[in-house]
Amino acid sequence: MGAASCTEKCSWSPSCDRDGGVYLDFVTAIPSHGSCGAFDEELIEVECPAGATFPETVQNLNALDRHFLHFCGSSNVVVVRWLLHFGASPFAHDSNNTTGVHVACRAGSAGVLQELLRHRPSLDRADVAGWTPLHVAARMSRCSLVVILLKVGAPLGSRNSHGELPSEMCLDEATHMAFSSYQEHLFSSSRSPWSFQVDRPDAEDAEAPLPTPFFTPQHPIASFRGHKDASQIGVRIFNAQPGYGIAFIRAVGLVHDYPRSASKFLLQETVDRKAVGNFLGETFAMCDTLRLAFFSRCDLWNTGVVSALLQACHGLEWPDDLQKVNRLVHALAINWWTCHEEFADEEVLQPDDLDEIRGLELKSKLGNAENLSFLFLSCLCLHHYLHECAGRMEPEIWRKFHESIETVPPVVLHKIFAVIRRHWIPQFSIPFLSSKNFKRCEPLPVRSSSLPWLHGIPAIQGWLSVESTPPHDIGYRSKRELWISISLGLLCFSLSPSSAAPEACLALTGLQSHWDGERVVLQKHSGSRSDAAATAGKADVMLAHLKADGSWKECQFQKMELSIGPSSQEDPQKWLQWLADSAIDINSV
C-alpha cells in the first residue's frame, strides 16, 4: 500500500509549506511533511534526538563536556581519551539526555564506542524520546555497533516513547539479521559466547576520500589591488570581523578571487594571527578552501609531526576552540599528505635538532592522512599536559592512547613523545586547554566614536536615509537610516558609527551624483541624452553586500538616493563634493 499524500492526511492545502515534498526531519530522521504535521510512517508526538546534539541542548555544559560529546560523534578516539584525561565526564549528557554513547552510535565509530564502554555507562539510559543507544544504532543501520552493544548486554526489551523495541527499528537486512541471531542464541541452550560476522563495514567506517572543495570566483566591484590604504582597511576589518574582512578584500579586488591569493593576504605582518586561526577553523564553506590554500604555503616537505606543526604556527595562533583546532590540523594533514607523493625527489635533510621520523618514511608508517591528523591534535594535547599542566605521563600511557591507530608503529610515537617532553614550544599552546575555567573570553565592546577601520584615513561620515530602486535589503529591514562613509572611492554602509565592519560597499567609479532638491541621487554617468535613453531601466549601481562567512553578494540598482534630513545637520553640498571627488578610476589614485 502506497504512502498517503499530504492532502489525504491533513486539511492543509496541497502545496503545504514545503511544496508537498517529503523531507527528512532533522531530529527524528523520519520522513515527514512541513507544518502540516503529517508523517508517512507515523505521527511523532515527541521529538527524537536520535543521538544528535544541538547548540541549544549543550549550552549548560562546561566546555570540556561539550567538546567530549562533539568528538564522540567523530572517529577520533584519541582526542576522546585526551578529553577524558583532562577531566571530561564519560557520563556527560545534554538537556535531551543524549549521552556520548548515543552520539557514537549515531556516528558509527566502533573505536569511540568501545572506549566509552570501558567506563561502564548505563546502556539502558534513554533520551527524552525513550531511545537507548541500541535504538539509535539500529535506526542508523550501524550493524557493527549493534553487535558490540548486544555482546555487552544492551537491553533488548527497552521501548521508546512510541512503544518500539530496538529490533523493530532496523532499516537494513544485516542489522535485522544480527538481532535475529542474538535472539536465537538467547533461546538456545548453547553456553558458548554469541558471535556474529558483519559482512560489510558501516558506511562511515570506510576511508573517506580527500576533500576537493569547489570554489567559484566572482568579479569584484572595484580594483584596489596594491592600494596600501585600502589594504590597511581590509586588514583592520579582518582583525575585528574576519569573515567580513575576507568578503571585503574579495569584493573590492584587493586580491585575485582565489583561495591561494586570499591566503597570501592573511600572511601580512599586521594581520592578527589569532583572528586567522579563529576564522580558518570555522565550518563555513569558504574556510574549507582557505584552510587548504593557507597550509599549502607551508614548507611541509620532509617534515615530521612536530616540525609540520611548527610550520603551521608561522601564520596563525591556535583558536580557543578544540573543534576549530581539529579542523585546522585535518587540513594540515591533507596538505602534508599530498605534498609527499611517492614520485617525489629524494629527501633533503633539514638542519634542526628534532629527532623524529619524517617525510616519506613517516608517510609509509601512517597509512592515511586521517591518522596523521589524529597525531597532530594528540601532539598538541601532550605538549599541554606535560608543559602547561606539569603533568607526569609515561611513554607507555601515551602509546595506549593511540591503540586504535593500528598502522602507527610504536617507534613513531616514542620519538614524538621524546621530542615533546624535551622541548617547550610556546606556539603549541591551545587557549581552550590553558584556561582553568574552560570558558571563552568575550571580546570587549567597541567604544569608538567613528568607524575603527577608517581611523586616520580621510573620509566623510554621517547618518543618512538610504533608498534605492529596486529597494535594498541592507542592515535592518525596518530601518533605512544607515551610517554612511565615503573614502578611497568607496561608499560604505554600516549599522552604527562603531561598526567593526561595513555591511556593504559600492565603488563610486563611473557614477554621477546630483541634488534633486530633497536628496542626493547616485546613478551611472551618462554623456548624452541618447546614452541615458539607451541605459534606461538597466541596473548600473553595483553594490557588494558583505557576509560574515567570507562571501559577498552582488546587488544591482538603477539608482540610489541618500536623504539628508534637517535633524542630521549634514551639508548636502559637502557630500556632493566628496562624491564628485571620489567618482574616479581608483587605478589613477
From TrEMBL:
Domain SEC7 positions: 220-406
Entry-linked SUPFAM superfamilies = Ankyrin repeat (SSF48403), Sec7 domain (SSF48425)
Pfam families named in the record: Ank_2, Sec7
Per the record's keyword annotation, is Iron included, yes or no? no
Output one GO BP term.
regulation of ARF protein signal transduction
Could you tell me the keywords of this UniProt record?
ANK repeat, Repeat
Give the matching InterPro entries.
Answer: Ank_Repeat/CDKN_Inhibitor, Ankyrin_rpt, Ankyrin_rpt-contain_sf, Sec7_dom, Sec7_dom_sf
Question: ANK repeats: which residues?
Answer: 129-161
Molecular function (GO) terms for this protein are: guanyl-nucleotide exchange factor activity
- The protein's name is Ankyrin repeat domain-containing protein 1 (Cardiac adriamycin-responsive protein) (Cardiac ankyrin repeat protein)
